[in-house]
């Protein structure tokens, strides 16, 4: 039953005198109710305003990255698991076979589960894993990811030693090792294959060492108020999972708060390599580490001068064939399970054009976020200053710097005249690194003006790629870039190479790495030469007649100056001649290659499978539903025994080693801080309770209750009267 | 009329519930520190940290005292909501307060860290890590930052403690983006003696 106010109570300016007191009470109730509504809506707005804030916010303002030690009994600080690594890189032809041993040592008095989030090269095909406990070796098996996780959790709770290797990103993996006894060491050996890069006559290979802390955009998805937070983060990282990065807690391993020194190495690694290209080599060099080189005929052996180093900077090895030996084409093949696999590499001629080059519109996007602090921002500035020198008078350009928000130099691209370039130099010189890494906004700004027909748009993106939402950004580039091209310049001691590589791939450009201020000149010089030269385009492959070939990449991209054609192929039988044709600039070009060379190169099938998985995962970006992609990836990964986003390696020891009454503590391994870069950011704790508001509202409600009591009592009095 | 019967109890119950909820948060914050104090005493005799109550998922790791403000608080393990309800919390991954490195301690602006609004640059505060000697700190800077724009980073290359709380202190709403940071540097070299086996100097993971 609702009761309406009698009209006279609202409308009559002069109600009967008897009524006046009552109406005053009603008025005050109406006023209070109005107040309540207003306050309620303010509260609602602030709550929702906060949500908007959090969407824009970075380093997960959320609750602190919680690392409660997972023992049932009173927890205690335990020395973090010590990690020692060994790596051996065996390079032969276009592929490298890398064996990494991770020794997890438990120095504490209790039982420990070690968790190590580690980087690998972004085209690593992880095909073998073994757990070594003293003399005992347990071979790992590939299982579907969820199943592997269940196997691991079961073994862990039963007290068996177990190791689980999962893929978080193509270049980031997690190794969990359960039930390491007091004083014990468990070794996990991981083997992977990769192709080496060949560009402008130089071969190179990168062995990543640590992870630059990723920026995590989005809104924390962890439920619960400050009062009752459930400690169920997916992983053990410093960030909480967010709507934009649902696995944030798995990809944000803590950094060791202490910087590495020679006397106090952090996560020491010994690294050795053998190099067998079947030809004499020149200029074998390691960009960031001192190495000792030994030659035995055409075979080279290499080790670190220091023996072992902290894992604080990526190891990069490059080598050149001796003069006159530069390969023009190569085929490596392998037979596996009745099928032929091949890896082809062909160097096209230098693209040339008789026509005048189209004027260009250059958009430089430079990352000035917090993770660029230290050596990175200097490298970025120098790179940008050099890039400005490459502008011609017919070109147009703009610079967008971004951290939490993007800031353009000009509202839209301007002529590259001396006055504008002077302004750009001034703008660049005063750049400082601080704040979040909101790449989306920066890219959207860069793409906001459509490219002009008269100019070729080239976007140069200078960043460390330290973001957790890579896939969303690839999709943005794929959807919005239009006719332009995007080039990435990876900066710093431990850049996210997966981001550099894929962003450039979806941007139909190419990528460059700069890890040291001394490299800026050479690397940027190469990039500018690529930007200024015509491309090798319209590439086509003609396989021998009748062959049903599955090749990756399935469509050959345009190639920039110095880049070779690289193809992974599989067919029931690969014999005869393959012909590759295209336009090098405006010169038609064609080259044939004899398939099935003499070599039977182990690992070519694995490389093909890894390329296929990468191509399938790319389909998520181009719009195929994840479930379909997953089904296809699973088939390849299970058949070829590879780690993928949907398959993991699991090894479990049969015997139970941890007594049932002993507790197990989880101890994540901290990564070393990338050399010269800023230390790890911390998530701000949430440092206010809702008590003030709750008490305020409580008092207001109590007061309202009291008001109503009075009103009702008065009405009743009047009613009685 | 029917609604009159219910309107008063409705507001009274709602009011009591809301007020009680808020008061409970405040009471818990005060009461817990007393329970923690006895756990702390006990922990001085044991190698292992002692939980203040059996179902607690946190335990005291250090004591924070500021004689000039009458402050005596126990810092708990973890700066998560489940710890901060009972005391200031040490942020995992940062150095343990009173040990070398960059330490972060968070506390609620409307309970334990309300006193930060009266702290001034130059003030002294004492930190006593579990089973170690007291380290005196001097407040070197106070800053208000927007957590959306500015990551919490170790800025100094020397040992540093930063106390974090929400800002503004009197805001009605919890969960705003602003943070009030109090930076302090140790006056003496932080102690590295003690039992590194149980309290490693830089690993708190």
List the helices and strands and how they pair.
The complex is a heterodimer of chains A (721) and B (205).
Chain A: H1 7-11, H2 17-56, E1 82-92, E2 95-105, E3 111-119, E4 125-133, E5 136-139, E6 141-144, H3 145-158, E7 160-169, E8 172-180, E9 185-195, E10 197-199, E11 202-207, E12 268-276, E13 281-286, E14 291-296, E15 299-310, E16 315-321, E17 329-336, E18 339-346, E19 360-367, H4 375-389, E20 396-402, E21 406-408, E22 414-415, H5 418-429, H6 439-446, E23 456-463, H7 470-480, E24 485-491, H8 497-506, E25 511-514, H9 520-532, E26 536-542, E27 550-552, E28 565-571, E29 577-584, E30 587-594, H10 604-621, H11 626-640, E31 647-656, E32 664-668, H12 691-720
Parallel strand pairs in A: 1-12, 3-32, 19-20, 19-23, 23-24, 24-25
Antiparallel strand pairs in A: 1-2, 2-9, 3-8, 4-5, 4-9, 6-31, 7-8, 7-31, 10-11, 11-16, 12-15, 13-16, 14-15, 17-18, 18-28, 20-21, 20-22, 26-29, 27-28, 29-30
Helix pairs in contact in A: 2-12, 4-5, 4-9, 6-7, 7-8, 10-11
Chain B: H1 2-43, E1 60-66, E2 71-77, H2 81-84, E3 89-90, E4 102-106, E5 124-129, E6 135-146, E7 160-166, E8 178-186
Parallel strand pairs in B: 2-3, 4-7
Antiparallel strand pairs in B: 1-2, 1-5, 3-4, 5-6, 6-8, 7-8
Q: Biggest β-sheet of chain A: count, sense, barrel?
A: 8 strands, mixed
* Share of β-strand residues of chain B: 25-35%
What integer value in Å does the Rg of chain B equal?
19 Å
**What's the number of helices of chain B?**
2
Shape of chain A: globular
Describe this structure as you would to a colleague.
The complex is a heterodimer of chains A (721) and B (205). Chain A has twelve helices and 32 strands. Chain A has 721 residues and is α+β, with helices and mostly antiparallel strands. Chain A has an eight-stranded mixed beta sheet. Chain A starts with 6 loop residues before the first helix and ends with a helix. Mean pLDDT of chain A is 85; it is low at 1-21, 41-79 and 223-233. Chain B is of the alpha+beta class and 205 residues long. The radius of gyration of chain B is 19 Å and the shape is globular. The longest helix of chain B has 42 residues, at 2-43. In chain B, β5 (124-129) and β6 (135-146) form a beta hairpin. Mean pLDDT of chain B is 80; it is low at 190-205. An eight-stranded mixed barrel of chain B has the order 1-2-3-4-7-8-6-5. Chain B has helices spanning 2-43, 81-84, and strands spanning 60-66, 71-77, 89-90, 102-106, 124-129, 135-146, 160-166, 178-186. Chain B has a single domain, classed as Sortase (Sortase, Chain: A, Beta Barrel), CATH 2.40.260. Chains A and B meet through α2 and α12 of A and α1, α2, β4 and β7 of B.
């Amino acid at each position: 039953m609702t009761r309406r106010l009698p009209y006279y109570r609202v409308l009559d300016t002069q109600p009967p005198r008897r009524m006046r007191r009552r109406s005053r009470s009603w008025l005050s109730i109406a006023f209070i109710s109005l107040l309540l509504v207003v306050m309620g809506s303010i509260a609602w707005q602030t709550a929702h305003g906060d949500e908007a804030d959090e969407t824009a916010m970075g380093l997960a303002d959320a609750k602190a990255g919680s690392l409660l030690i997972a023992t049932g009994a009173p927890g205690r600080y335990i020395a973090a698991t010590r990690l020692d690594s060994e790596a051996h890189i065996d390079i032969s032809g276009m592929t490298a076979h890398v064996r990494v041993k991770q020794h997890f040592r438990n120095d504490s008095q209790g039982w420990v589960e070690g968790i190590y989030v580690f980087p690998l090269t972004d085209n690593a095909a992880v095909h073998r894993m073994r757990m070594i406990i003293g003399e005992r070796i347990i071979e790992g098996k590939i299982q579907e990811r969820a199943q592997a996780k269940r196997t691991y959790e079961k073994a862990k709770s039963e007290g068996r030693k177990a190791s689980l290797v999962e893929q978080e990103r193509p270049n980031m993996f997690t190794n969990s090792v359960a039930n390491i006894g007091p004083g014990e060491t468990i070794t996990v050996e991981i083997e992977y294959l990769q192709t080496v890069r060949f560009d402008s006559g130089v071969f190179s290979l990168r062995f990543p060492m640590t992870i630059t802390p990723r920026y995590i955009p989005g809104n924390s998805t962890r439920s619960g108020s400050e009062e009752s937070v459930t400690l169920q983060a997916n992983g053990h990282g410093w960030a909480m999972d967010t709507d934009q990065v649902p696995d944030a807690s798995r990809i944000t391993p803590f950094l060791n708060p202490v910087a590495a020194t020679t006397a106090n190495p952090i996560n020491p690694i010994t690294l050795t390599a053998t190099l067998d290209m079947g030809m004499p080599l020149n200029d074998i060099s390691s960009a960031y580490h001192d190495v000792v080189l030994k030659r035995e005929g055409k075979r080279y052996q290499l080790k670190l001068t220091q023996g072992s180093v902290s894992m604080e900077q990526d190891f990069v090895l490059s080598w050149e064939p001796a003069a006159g030996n530069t390969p023009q084409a190569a085929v490596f093949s392998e037979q596996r399970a009745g099928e032929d696999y091949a890896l082809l590499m062909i160097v096209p001629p230098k693209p040339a054009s008789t026509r005048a080059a189209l004027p260009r519109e250059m958009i430089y996007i430079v990352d000035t976020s917090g993770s660029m602090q230290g050596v990175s921002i200097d490298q970025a500035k120098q790179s940008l200053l050099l890039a400005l020198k490459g502008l011609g008078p017919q070109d147009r350009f703009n610079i967008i710097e971004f951290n939490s928000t993007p800031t353009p130099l000009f509202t839209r691209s301007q002529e590259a005249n001396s006055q504008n370039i002077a302004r750009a130099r001034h703008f660049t010189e005063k750049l400082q690194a601080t704040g979040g890494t909101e790449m989306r906004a920066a890219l959207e700004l860069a793409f906001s003006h459509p490219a002009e027909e008269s100019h070729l748009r080239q976007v140069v993106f200078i960043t460390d790629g330290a973001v957790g939402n890579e896939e969303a950004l690839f999709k943005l580039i794929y959807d919005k870039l239009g006719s332009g091209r995007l080039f990435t310049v990876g900066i710093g001691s431990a850049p996210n190479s997966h981001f550099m590589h894929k962003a450039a791939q979806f941007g139909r450009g190419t990528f460059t790495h700069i890890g040291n201020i001394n490299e800026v000149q050479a690397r940027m010089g190469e990039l500018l030469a690529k930007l200024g030269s015509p491309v090798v385009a319209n590439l086509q492959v003609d396989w021998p007649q009748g062959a049903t070939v599955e090749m990756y990449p399935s469509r050959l991209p345009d190639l920039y100056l110095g880049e070779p054609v690289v193809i992974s192929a599989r067919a029931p039988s690969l014999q005869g001649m393959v012909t590759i044709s295209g336009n090098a600039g405006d010169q038609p070009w064609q080259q044939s290659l004899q398939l099935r060379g003499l070599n039977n190169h182990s690992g070519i099938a694995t490389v093909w499978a890894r390329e296929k998985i990468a191509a399938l995962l790319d389909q998520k970006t181009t719009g195929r539903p994840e479930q379909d992609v997953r089904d296809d990836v699973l088939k390849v990964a299970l058949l070829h025994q590879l780690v993928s986003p949907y398959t993991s390696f699991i090894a479990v020891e049969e015997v139970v080693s941890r007594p049932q009454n002993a507790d197990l503590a989880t101890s994540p391994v901290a990564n070393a801080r990338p050399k010269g870069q800023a230390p790890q950011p911390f998530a701000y704790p949430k440092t206010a309770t809702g008590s003030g508001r709750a008490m305020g509202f409580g008092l207001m409600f109590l007061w309202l209750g009291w008001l109503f009591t009075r009103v009702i009592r008065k009405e009743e009095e009047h009613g009685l009267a | 009329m029917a609604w009159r019967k219910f309107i008063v109890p409705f507001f009274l119950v709602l009011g009591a519930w809301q007020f009680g909820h808020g008061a409970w948060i405040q009471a818990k914050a005060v009461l817990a520190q007393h329970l923690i104090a006895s756990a702390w005493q006990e922990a001085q005799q044991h190698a292992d940290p002692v939980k203040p109550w059996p179902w607690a998922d946190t335990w005291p790791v250090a004591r924070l005292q500021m004689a000039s403000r009458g402050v005596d608080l126990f810092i708990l393990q973890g700066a998560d909501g489940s710890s901060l309800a009972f005391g200031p919390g040490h942020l995992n991954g940062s150095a343990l307060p009173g040990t070398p490195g960059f330490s972060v301690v968070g506390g609620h602006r409307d309970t334990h860290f309300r006193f930060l609004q009266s702290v001034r640059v130059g003030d002294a505060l004492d930190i006593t890590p579990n089973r170690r000697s007291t380290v005196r700190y001097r407040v070197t800077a106070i800053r208000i930052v927007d957590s959306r724009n500015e990551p919490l980073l170790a800025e100094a290359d020397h040992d540093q403690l930063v106390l974090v709380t929400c800002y503004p202190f009197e805001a009605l709403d919890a969960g705003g983006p602003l943070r009030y940071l109090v930076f302090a540097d140790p006056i003496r070299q932080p102690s590295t003696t003690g039992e590194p086996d149980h309290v490693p100097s830089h690993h708190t993971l």
